[in-house]
Specification:
This protein is of the alpha+beta class. The chain contains five helices and six strands.
Length: about 180
């Protein structure tokens, strides 16, 4: 599947995304052996409740396992309360958040796959003073089918992070402040 947009143009679209003020975005080194072209970034909530990593892979020749020539791979981890981590349906909820986020931004994709893990930890012995903690992890990948709209997949990924972190949705019609606007 040949794309009518270059990988550099896709990256320019991604780099132009402005995240809400609670999120810190950073470009990181991408894995070099998975595809001829790769891009990676992290997003963290400023309160350190949640973190996420996204890798965009591109192989112009396509890869059979992907069902296309692009692949988005993500990991999202968020602290959650113990009650949520104990809910047997939370894994289904985590996966539905991914699908709903992709739908919210009109993303076209194939070959979605992934896992949702819930972890509840209690500390004992010399670690006994640590508070119990619980986490939700979403590990997923999917193949975007419209290369000109890959930035929307990144927006969906950010939306997934916001959902996992429990950030309130921004009402329609409201433009969120960005970090650069706050520093002026």
């Amino acid at each position: 599947m040949a794309s009518a947009i270059s990988f550099e143009e896709i990256l320019a679209d991604i780099r132009a995304i402005t995240a809400r003020v609670e999120l810190i975005l950073e470009e990181i080194p991408a894995p070099q052996k998975l595809a001829p072209f790769a891009f990676a970034m992290t997003a963290d909530t400023e309160d350190e409740i949640a973190t996420a990593r996204l890798v965009l892979l591109h192989d112009p020749a396509g890869q059979e396992g992907w069902g296309g020539d692009f692949r988005c791979v993500t990991f999202v981890r968020a602290d959650v309360d113990h009650e949520m981590a104990s809910d047997p349906m939370v894994a289904n909820v985590g996966w539905s958040w991914l699908i709903e986020s992709l739908e919210k931004f009109g993303c076209q994709y194939v070959q979605p796959s992934g896992t949702v893990t819930r972890v509840a930890s209690a500390s004992f012995g010399t670690l006994g003073e640590r508070a119990d903690d619980s986490e939700l992890e979403v590990r997923a990948s999917w193949t975007p089918t419209d290369p000109t709209a890959i930035a929307d997949h990144v927006r969906a990924w950010l939306d997934l992070l916001e959902r996992c972190a429990g950030l309130e949705p921004i009402p329609e019609g409201v433009t969120p402040l960005t970090r650069s606007q706050l520093s002026k």
